[in-house]
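Weekly puzzle thread! Below is a chain. First person to post its structure in C-alpha cell form gets bragging rights.
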Amino acid sequence: MAKKSVASLQTGSKRLTKAIKMVKSPKSGAYTFVESIMTPEAVNDFFSKK
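Winning reply:
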C-alpha cells in the first residue's frame, strides 16, 4: 500500500502533519483514502495501524 506524509502544517506554536493512507475495503475491494492531521511523532503509528 502506498503511504506518504503529504504536508507540514504550522498553527501557532504547534507543528502538525497531514497524513494520507490508502486502505482497501474488505467488502468491495475498492481503495479509499484516510486522512488525518497529527503531530509528526504520531505519523508512524498511524501508518502501522490497519
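Puzzle host: Confirmed. Bonus trivia for everyone else. The longest helix spans residues 43-48.
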